[in-house]
Fold this sequence. Notes:
By secondary structure, the chain is an alpha/beta fold. The protein contains two helices and eight strands, in the order βαββββαβββ. The chain has helices at residues 20-31, 80-92, and strands spanning 13-17, 34-39, 42-46, 51-57, 73-76, 97-104, 112-117, 123-128. It has a four-stranded mixed sheet with strand order 1-4-3-2, covered by helices on one side. This is Glyoxalase/bleomycin resistance protein/dioxygenase superfamily protein.
Amino acid sequence: MSAIATTFATGHVGLNVTDLERSVAFYQRVFGWSVRGRGDGYAFLGDDARLVLTLWEQASGTFGTRTPGLHHLSFEVETVADVQAAGARVREEGLRLYHDGTVPHGEGASSGGVFFEDPDGIRLEVFTGAGVHGEAPTGTAPTCGFF
Length: 147
C-alpha cells in the first residue's frame, strides 16, 4: 500500500485545557503566537501566516501519560538560537526544562531541542533539525521519550 500523499504537514492541533485564559497567556508568551479568533470556551492561536493551535476549555485534572492519546507535541524552529529563546521563555514562566536545557536528540543526527510542559502538564518540545551537538541525555533511546 502506498501513502495517500508524498508530503504531510499538520494543519493545526487542538488541545483540551483546564483554564483557557491561563493557557492562552502561556502559549502567547512562550511561542509568541497571537489570538486569531475566540469563542465561548475556545481560542485560535497562530502567527501572521497560519493557525497553529486551538485551545478548548473542556478538561479537568492534569495531562495523563497512562492513557491513550498524545505523548508530546513537537514544534520545529529554524535555528539553535530559536530553541534557546524558547527555553529562556519557559524558564521565565517558572517551568521546568527537562534534560536541563537544549539537548541533542538520541537518534544520532545533529537535531535537538528543549522539552517542557504547559500549565496543564501537556508535554511539549521545541527543536531544530541541525546544529545541536554533544551527548544525548538518554544514550541511543529517543530523547523525547523520557520526559
